[in-house]
């Protein structure tokens, strides 16, 4: 009882709740640490396979097959940017590992000015590893709506068709579409396999590019065991309207 005659009530349960909260927090932190450790281990295992993946790609002649076309697209310019969308997890996906290996080979061979990558499924360990390769991680989902101001190669193997459409759409009215090239699913195959849905309704800018005859494609060579990583993949370029 205090001097005014009131009894001070002490809720002893708070101490118990605090101890419980600290215990739960420690458990949560331990789970997070274990999760990060598992992510790092998976990433380490996948990076150990990179040299073998490089050799498979070199043996497949995929880099040699597409390099002349990319250099022709680059032209006399000394600057060529690269933007990568939708790579997937290089820790969990064998296909993503092959696709990432090709990205690294292109970085080494083509000497890009800047390289950017967005992949929503990246772990912290993957983001750090990719950043160490000189690649800038895009923090927000652009939905493919990136405007280009200089020659830019969009590396987008097996991305959703709407993402390709958005890349073209974002550079269509300004005429900058001639400054971009895409490594992704063949547009001509989409045109042939619209499967009952009009390509023009779903992806009007892809359809317009095909109809205008401004699309040129260099199909990737089919080589086992890389066929699943790059099947139906092409280097796609765009000419100016005549």
Question: Could you describe the 3D structure shown?
Answer:
With 242 residues, the protein is α/β, with parallel strands linked by helices. The protein has one domain: Rossmann fold, CATH 3.40.50. Helix content is 48%, strand content 13%. The chain is built from 10 helices and 7 strands. It has a 7-stranded mixed β-sheet with strand order 3-2-1-4-5-7-6, with helices on both faces. α6 links the parallel β4 and β5. The longest helix has 36 residues. The protein starts with 12 loop residues before the first helix and ends with a strand. The N terminus is likely disordered. InterPro entries: SRR1-like, SRR1L. Belongs to the SRR1 family.
Short description:
It comes from Batrachochytrium dendrobatidis (strain JEL423). This protein has helices at residues 13-48, 50-60, 62-74, 94-110, 124-132, 161-169, 187-192, 199-202, 204-211, 227-230; strands at 81-85, 115-118, 136-137, 152-155, 180-185, 215-219, 233-238.
Topology (elements, then pairings):
Elements lengths: L12 H36 L1 H11 L1 H13 L6 E5 L8 H17 L4 E4 L5 H9 L3 E2 L14 E4 L5 H9 L10 E6 L1 H6 L6 H4 L1 H8 L3 E5 L7 H4 L2 E6 L4
Parallel strand pairs: 1-2, 1-4, 2-3, 4-5
Antiparallel strand pairs: 5-7, 6-7
Helix pairs in contact: 2-4, 3-4
Strand proportion: 5-15%
> Level of helix content?
40-55%
Mean pLDDT: 82
Q: Count of helices?
A: 10
CATH class: Alpha Beta
**Overall shape:** globular
Question: Separation of termini?
Answer: 94 Å
Number of domains: 1
| pLDDT < 50 runs, ≥5 residues | 1-11, 26-35
| CATH domain fold name | Rossmann fold
The CATH architecture classification is 3-Layer(aba) Sandwich
Tell me about the largest β-sheet. Answer: 7 strands, mixed
Structural class by SSE content: alpha/beta
| Helix/strand order | HHHEHEHEEHEHHHEHE
User: What integer value in Å does the Rg equal?
Assistant: 25 Å
**Widest beta sheet: strand line-up:** 3-2-1-4-5-7-6
Family: Belongs to the SRR1 family.
Protein name: SRR1-like domain-containing protein
Pfam families: SRR1
């Amino acid at each position: 009882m205090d001097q005014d005659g009131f009894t001070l009530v002490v809720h002893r349960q708070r101490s118990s709740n605090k101890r419980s909260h600290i215990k739960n927090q420690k458990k949560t932190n331990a789970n997070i640490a274990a999760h990060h450790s598992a992510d790092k281990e998976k990433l380490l295992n996948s990076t150990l396979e990179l040299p073998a993946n490089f050799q498979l790609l070199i043996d497949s002649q995929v880099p040699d097959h597409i390099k002349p076309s990319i250099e022709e697209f680059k032209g006399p310019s000394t600057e060529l940017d690269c933007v990568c969308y939708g790579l997937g997890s290089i820790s969990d996906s064998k296909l993503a590992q092959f696709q990432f290996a090709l990205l690294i080979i292109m970085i080494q061979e083509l000497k890009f000015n800047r390289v950017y990558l967005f992949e929503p499924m990246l772990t912290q360990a993957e983001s750090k590893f990719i950043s160490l390769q000189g690649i800038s991680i895009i923090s927000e989902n652009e939905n493919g709506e990136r405007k280009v101001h200089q020659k830019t190669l969009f590396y987008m193997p097996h991305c959703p068709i709407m993402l390709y459409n958005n890349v073209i759409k974002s550079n269509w009215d300004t005429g900058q579409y001639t400054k971009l090239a895409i490594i992704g699913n063949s547009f001509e195959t989409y045109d042939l396999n619209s499967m009952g849905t009009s390509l023009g309704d779903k992806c009007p800018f892809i359809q317009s590019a095909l109809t205008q005859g401004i699309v040129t494609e260099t199909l990737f060579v089919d080589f086992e065991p890389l066929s699943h990583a790059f099947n139906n993949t092409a280097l796609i370029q765009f000419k100016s309207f005549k």
